[in-house]
Write a structure and sequence with these properties.
homodimer; alpha/beta; Rossmann fold; N-(1-d-carboxylethyl)-l-norvaline Dehydrogenase, domain 2; six-stranded parallel β-sheet; 16 helices; 13% strand
């Protein structure tokens, strides 16, 4: 398939990420057919000319290329393989692109099932958050048939800046998993380090000055530590989404007989964060979990 | 005390870091008096005009400002408080600056003992490694009497780029500990993520392209991952030095009643690294430890 401006694009999942990504496609002049579980979240798109559909199957029936950007692997499964799912109505030679951060094994299964019917399924999770979605600077990690991935190039470029083909189906999800394992390590280091700094009575601004540009530096330190220092635990990136990503990573690892003790430990604290009602906070709330574990009042000065 | 070119500088500990740092002071025209346990490591300095002394005490007797840059807290203790240590011979109004990465509690003890005799003791550990020492781009984290720290300004500037006063005695060491806790988290995340990438059969170069500039980015990822991908486990930063730093962090945490589960776990794997004979490898050898834990052959392709 060659993508032209007459290629009809479907978009399922118009949450904060999906909406911003789909908007770039719509603005570039493509016909866009949209569905979302909660209708109201699609209004921004439909008010600008996107066509509302009543189900994933209806989107599929109207479109040549169908993007999905939903929540959990279970949502991906339902949206694509379910009763009113994409595969019920997609035309042969249709292309299905799941951009949800989801399970690599599920991505491979979907590619297999779709492939039997002549349909290409591509997995293409992203990193870069809502800002990256808005500014079209996402990193897109892509798995699936290389020819199809290349053909989609005009669409990738509307959404992302770092667009890398990672290999056969599932590889995009594997790469995104690598991304999340990196973040998990950075976050536990960051939160334990800041707690240590508080506890030892240091001035956090000064410590930040000393450590942020050297060998201890990280995106998390540069971007999230300042939020923590302001006492800001708003998302950013939701705890409950991160828990999902860690679960995916650990499930895949289990399946591959791979023991990742650091990640397993981080998961425990994020489960605790959810248990404490911090699921809708940003991932930096891990500091609060660790502070509470230590009966340490973040509002007070250290007690070295 | 005002630092002028007639201020006599003592330097104890001329290993890879100390030698390069002291060289900047010598080259700037100061008289330098040096001691090192292994004489040969001081020859580079003495051949350029530094005066060899037979003990820390002798260095102290000859100098106005005495720097120490040794190995372990036990070495700091012996060098400063021991039988032939600095405090035996230092003049009143002398200034003692320990730049070793050492125990905050020991730094406070030394400052107390020295202070009773009218001597200022400053703790000023650094980050930036041998390259930072050579190029005088170190981050220097400083604790102690602020007036004295300010007076030493001409000397700091010869060695470092990021020079930050952290607070009273011990604060420099606390800040450096924060730095090392950050690195510990980054390293476990990095090594587990890369192992996952290997195991899932990804092309590491492509993964690196996707993840290195976004939210998963870190100094470790940018600088150490490429070494790992080349199969290079040379130091960089020695495992056995990192184990020391983690021990200091955990001892201080224990003393403050602070539980840091992530750091404690990382310590276990670095102890295992030492047990496996990897003490003289770089900290990235953690990947090898985790690979061996999983009976995974890093030379082979993944087995997803």
């Amino acid at each position: 398939m060659k993508i032209t401006k007459s290629t009809r694009i479907g978009w399922i999942g118009t949450g904060i990420m999906g909406r911003n990504m789909a908007m770039h496609i719509l603005r570039d002049g493509y016909s866009l057919f949209v569905y979302n579980r909660t209708h109201s979240k699609a209004v921004e798109l439909t008010s600008k000319g996107a066509v509302w559909c009543e189900s994933p199957a209806e989107v599929a029936a109207m479109s040549d290329v169908i993007f999905t950007m939903v929540g959990y692997p279970s949502d991906v499964k339902e949206t694509i393989l379910g009763e009113n799912g994409v595969l019920v109505a997609i035309r042969s030679n249709g292309i299905l692109v799941d951009m949800t951060t989801s399970s690599p094994t599920l991505a491979k299964d979907i590619a297999l099932i779709a492939g039997r019917r002549g349909i290409s399924a591509i997995d293409a999770p992203v990193s870069g958050g809502d800002i990256g979605a808005q500014e079209a600077t996402l990193s897109i990690m892509i798995g699936g048939d290389k020819k199809v991935v290349d053909a989609l190039s005009p669409l990738w470029k509307l959404m992302g800046k770092t667009i890398v083909y990672q290999g056969e189906a599932g590889s995009g999800q594997y790469a995104k998993t690598v991304n999340q394992i990196l973040i998990a390590g950075n976050m536990i280091g960051l939160c334990e380090a800041l707690l240590f700094a508080y506890q030892s009575g240091l001035d956090l601004e000064r410590v930040f000055q000393s450590v942020s540009t050297g060998a201890a530096g990280s995106w998390s330190l540069t971007n999230i530590a300042p939020r923590i220092m302001r006492g800001d635990f708003e998302p950013g990136f939701f705890v409950e989404h991160f828990v999902k990503d860690i679960e995916i990573a650990l499930e895949e690892s289990r399946r591959m007989n791979l023991s990742l003790p650091g990640l397993a430990l981080v998961e425990q604290f994020y489960i605790a964060a959810k248990a404490k009602g911090y699921g809708k906070n940003g991932t930096q709330v891990l500091l609060r979990v660790l502070a509470e574990l230590n009966n340490f009042d973040l509002g007070k000065k250290g007690k070295r």
